[in-house]
Design goal:
6% strand, globular, two-stranded antiparallel sheet, mainly alpha, two-stranded antiparallel ribbon, A middle domain of Talin 1, 16 helices
Length: 380
Amino acid sequence: MNKYMKIQLLKPLMIGTLTFLLSACGAETESSITTPMSEVDLGVQTAVTNTIIPAVNDFSQSISTLNSDIDTFCGNVNADNLATLQSSWQATFVSWYKLIPFQVGPLTLTDDNSAILNYIDFYRNGTIALRTSNLSDINTGLSSLIAGDPITDTSLSNSLTKSVGLLVLETAIFSDLADSTTPADIVTEFTNTAKKCDIIQALGYELSDRVGYIQSQWSTDYRDTGISYLELFTNNELENYFSSFDSLGDGVGTPASEALVVAIQEFLDFAGNADTFAELNRYSSNFLWDAFDASINSIESILDQSSVTELSLFSIMQSNGYEQDVDTIQSNLAVIRLAIDEQNITDFKAAAQSLDGNFKTSVINGLNINKGLTFADGDS
């Protein structure tokens, strides 16, 4: 029996009660939601459970390791511990890029009127002008902190988004205040300026606080509903808990499939148009390529869960008659991976734009979802 016949045989099972157990952060919650489940619903549910939840957990673990390495370095400032800390930061940035193609739900929740994700990576989401001007001001801000009041773990909790996050921490550990990237100069500055360690520990605390919030929202309790975002999102139940006037849009009834497609397309639009390699690739020649590779792996994982289910989104598209579109997407994924391997910026951006177009047309057509979606178009 081929896999498309199997899909058809599974259809009678798709309407009914869905009960599943979520486990994250050492806690378990169990709940039952009754809702009609289509092929696409079940495909999205599997893809999100097997892709986004592991990405959230991996990012959380990376932040934990990063903070441990910050403490080790500050307890014994030397070149070896600095190298370990810098490698840990790079691994954390890569783990972040596994997650950022999926800016839905917890990543878009606000804190002091700014999206949570902006406290982690403000510069990626800013306009070109903001990225350029604010990146150049990071060391100025660090100098002001050193000259100011004593720094504790929570001293930066009320800071502006541009004053915290991964790229501010990167600047602090990959350069000194005079912009030297020589390890000996960085070690000397940390040795002579103990307050700089207080700053990176406070920056690490803020990252840990934000990712803990994101993780709990995805896996345990979304916006005080007592139900995880994973469960609400993948069962299309958000509108049953929030009004249509909800300021975050959780009550408007957007299916998970649509929200997910738009989020991925917006990321690909950014990757294909923003000059990130000139703006963000400041202290390492390779980590940004590794980060984008992680993003592409996550996006492919959303589309292709064939190793664990017959209802992979690719399989659904094929059974709906879009075999050639799937082949085209797979070809474009191969092209972008080759561009990453060769570190070819021109080919990478062209392939990202092609995949962007695939999500605007082939994916929504192949999954038979809303044709009236509004998509991002070009980096600002």
